[in-house]
Amino acid sequence: MRVRLALGISLLATGLLAGAFGYGAANLVPTFDAVPQDMRFAFHAELMKINGITVQGTMVVSFLSAAVLAFLAHGRARAMAAAASALTFASFLITRFGNVPINGRIKRWAVEGPEPDTAELLGRWELFNDARTISAVAAFALLCLLALRSSGERAQSGRASSELTQSGTA
């Protein structure tokens, strides 16, 4: 039961994270590039006020739930959950040390105007955004594969024992 709960929470949180980053990469970034810079800076600064709380909170829940799942699971399931946890942690690190410092500069640009290296920094922000999106989507894909693999094993065996739900063996 604890394993299934950890899997469900990790799937939900990591799916939300991957979806948020995927939406941003597919919709927000092209919109940022299509509007005048002052509009982009103002919108970006306002968006980060809310994103800073919700996205980082989602990353923490995603990381912790996948780590708990790795602790509870066995065999290949443990490795898959640990990899998903590591990928969400990587997403957090990329965000914290890549995107967040540039977001701080964007807040200043919204008030003071752009700096000479603005285009280079915006390009780096987009690279960091792509990296964290790929990391989050890969973590979600691993957890989806783990859930599908586990449900397939239960269906084949007719009982609820697999690497994911074994207790005490493996």
Topology:
Blueprint: H1 2-34, H2 37-72, H3 75-112, H4 118-157
Structure in words:
With 170 residues, the chain is mainly alpha-helical. The chain is built from 4 helices and no strands. It has helices at 2-34, 37-72, 75-112, 118-157. α1 (2-34) packs antiparallel against α4 and α2 (37-72) packs antiparallel against α3 (75-112). The model has no long low-confidence stretch (mean pLDDT 90).
- Helical content stands at over 70%
Strand content: under 5%
Instruction: Please state the average pLDDT score.
Output: 90
Major sheet attributes: none
Q: Supply the helix-strand structural class.
A: mainly alpha
Number of strands: 0
Order of helices and strands: HHHH
The outline comes out as: elongated
| N-to-C span | 18 Å
Computed CA radius of gyration, to the nearest angstrom: 19 Å
| Number of distinct helices | 4
Low-confidence stretches: none
Concise synopsis of the structure shown:
The protein is built from four helices and no strands.
